Every structure is written in C-alpha cells, then in structure tokens.
Amino acid sequence: MVTDKKSGSPGEDNDNENEEQNKNAHPLTEETPTILIQKTLRSGQSIRYPGNVVVMGDVNPGAEITAGGNVVVMGSLRGVVHAGATGSIDALVTAFRLQPTQLRIADQITRAPDGGAQLPDQPEIAKIKNGRVVIERYLPGEKQKV
C-alpha cells in the first residue's frame, strides 16, 4: 500500500489493515507475495507490504518502504528502508544506487556514513552476515551468498 503521510491519500494508512497484513506475513520463500510499484516514491510517501517490494523508480529522501520480505529498487534508494520487518534475517535490499538515510533488515539497523561517500558505480545488495548488515556489490549471474 502506498500512502502519502502528508495528505493520507491515496488510501489512508490504517492500523487495523497493517495488523491484518502482519498476521498474513509469509516466511521468505518463492511463494512470498510481491508488489510492484511503477513510480518514484517522493518525500512523505510510504509503502507497507507483508511480502517483497519492487520499485521501478527512485526512493527519494523522506520516503519509506517497510517490507516483510526483500526490497528491490530499480533506481536510487535515498529514503528509509526496512526489509524483513516480520523478523526475517534472510531478507535482502538491492538497488542500483544504495544510499539510504536508514537501512534496516529484521532488527539490524545501519545508516549512510557521514560525509560524502563515493557513489556506487554498480548495483549493491545489503544483507545480514554474522549478525551485522553488510553492503556488497551485486554481481549479476553469480549466486549471492547470504
């Protein structure tokens, strides 16, 4: 569900609806439901979904994604992202440019370093390894180790 925090539209964010979504959350499997968002998320907009979230566009600063599963952004990720919100430490976050203001997988949180870090020149993937969030280059065609 995409909501605009400033106006509450389209569709108001409803706590009862979020509770219902959480009850229906699935473990990360090939059967995990996936939602496709075909637009850029702007400041004040948020997505909450119990499965995987794929965004074909950017996630601007001030926008938020909360997913029970994986998050894939086919653009720049500069907002707040929480993958594995239902506790899945196997969740992944992938983006062409991974520059979130805050990145969370399950209960592990990280943020971008202070100062001007060099922009990535390849897609990146964030995952939990040894109890910490790590960010690595995404290498297409190679099996990504979790």
UniProtKB/TrEMBL annotation:
Listed Gene3D superfamilies: 2.160.20.70
Cleaved signal peptide residues: none
GO BP of this protein: cell morphogenesis; division septum assembly; regulation of cell septum assembly
Chain positions covered by the region annotation Disordered: 1-33
Keywords per UniProt: Cell cycle, Cell division, Septation
Domain Septum formation inhibitor MinC C-terminal intervals: 37-136
Record carries keyword Cell division: yes
Entry keyword annotation includes Membrane: no
Subunit structure: Interacts with MinD and FtsZ.
Protein's recorded name: Septum site-determining protein MinC
